[in-house]
Design a protein that fits this description.
7-stranded parallel β-sheet, 6-stranded antiparallel beta barrel, binds pyridoxal-5'-phosphate, 28% helix, alpha/beta, TIM Barrel, 19 strands
């Protein structure tokens, strides 16, 4: 399919792999587990509109976004399912969220009051999920003081005559990616203590698991699960199962040159030809989200063979050394991430060389790269500008 793409560089997204990863989460969590796929940050950089329309086929309970603006965009595509705004919203955003029927995650009682007031002022109902901080430390009500805020929340919810629905209570693991699950177990215990301390029958659905938590502790995923990275093809943590590959990053050779030994390449002239070499210039750079840290470190696949990136990656161009591939020529596809032939560059390989994680690699791809979606039917579909920028 890549032969038809008229771009200098692009991201290929396999919709069918995304769906199979979601189905796998469902199998692990059990048929009755409410699924809340996380589609924040434009579905981890891949494109929220396509991701949501595909995953809707699996009929998830709701969706997870980070902020009100993402939720409002999603509400325009999705009329009915709950949309949870997971990061604490800024006070000025609450009214807009209420108008778009977003579900707020609550980290303090005064914020809950604000949500309730905005709902009353607009004569609307609003659902909230309470976040319990069991060690993550960035948001949520402190697990140690549940005895105090539990009744306060209950009183508040009761006091707004049914306008506020306390629909759920959740926490978030800080180290579920770690093979040692002791800290996650401690967080689970703290969360359970809070649930016990809440007024009887209150608190709604309880949910804890991100991708790693659900894969490591499937018995907890059944209560509600919020998968993210695994859906999009990232390994969720040490020793956890490989998802299907969802994303490939490819570019095309724009120019091939033969250079004598000693020729330098790129800003800072950090690489020097070791012999008579052939270099291919590819129209992709850190302006597309190709990490500059891969300069003189990363490898790419050309015709299924690994060759090195030479010199510094610049904003719009990257040079690879193809001396051992005498037939490579302009127009040939270069794979920076994903499979080509029998070899594959994984998100994790790229992340480790760039000294970051698979999340930052995915969310770092910029808008200049067209996202080319396929659904396994053999027909590609494009989101964004098919000719790149
Ligand atoms: C992002 C996020 C998730 C998903 O995490 P993954 O590690 O990508 O599976 C789950 N819950 C919350 C609250 C999040 O912010």
């Amino acid at each position: 399919m890549s032969t038809e793409i008229p771009s200098r560089a692009w991201l290929e997204v396999s919709g069918s792999a995304l769906l199979r990863n979601l189905q796998r989460v469902r199998t692990i969590a059990g048929p009755d587990a409410p699924l809340i796929p996380m589609v924040k940050a434009d579905a981890y950089g891949l494109g929220m509109a396509r991701a949501v329309s595909l995953m809707s086929r699996e009929d998830p309970w709701g969706w997870g976004v980070a902020c009100v603006a993402e939720g409002v965009t999603l509400r325009e595509m999705e009329a009915t399912r709950p949309i949870l705004v997971f990061s604490p919203a800024a006070p000025g955003e609450v009214a807009r969220g209420v108008e778009s029927s977003l579900t707020f995650c609550v980290s303090d009682v005064s914020f809950l009051k604000r949500v309730a007031r905005e709902a009353v002022a607009r004569d609307r109902r609003v659902s909230v999920h309470l976040e319990v901080d069991t060690g993550m430390g960035r948001a949520g009500l402190d697990w140690r003081t549940a005895g105090e805020w539990g009744p306060a929340v209950d009183e508040l919810v009761e006091g707004f005559d049914g306008r506020v629905q306390w629909e759920g209570t959740f926490t978030h693991f800080h180290s579920a990616d770690d093979a040692d699950d002791a800290s996650s177990k401690l967080q689970v215990r703290r969360f359970e203590e809070v649930l016990q301390a809440l007024p009887p029958g209150r608190g709604g659905m309880a949910h804890l698991c991100n991708s790693a938590g659900g894969l490591r502790m499937p018995h907890l995923a059944g209560r509600g699960t919020r998968p993210g990275i695994f859906l999009y093809g990232g390994v969720a943590g040490a020793g956890l199962p490989q998802p299907e590959e969802v994303v490939a990053l490819r570019g095309r050779i724009a120019l091939v040159r033969e250079v004598p030994e000693g020729t330098t390449v790129g800003y800072g002239a950090t690489y020097r030809a070791r012999r008579r070499e052939r270099w291919a210039t590819v129209g992709i750079g850190y302006g597309d989200g190709l990490r500059r840290a891969l300069s003189n470190r990363g490898q790419v696949l050309v015709g299924g063979k690994r060759v090195p990136i030479v010199g510094r990656i610049s904003m719009d161009m990257t040079v690879v050394e193809i001396t051992d591939l005498p037939t490579a020529r302009p127009g040939d596809v270069v794979t920076f991430l994903g499979s080509d032939g029998d070899d594959r560059i994984t998100l994790e390989e790229m992340a480790s060389l760039a000294e970051t994680n698979n999340y930052e690699i995915l969310t770092g791809f910029t808008r200049r790269l067209p996202r080319i979606w396929s659904e396994g039917s053999g027909r590609g579909a494009t989101e964004g500008n098919p000719r790149g920028g």
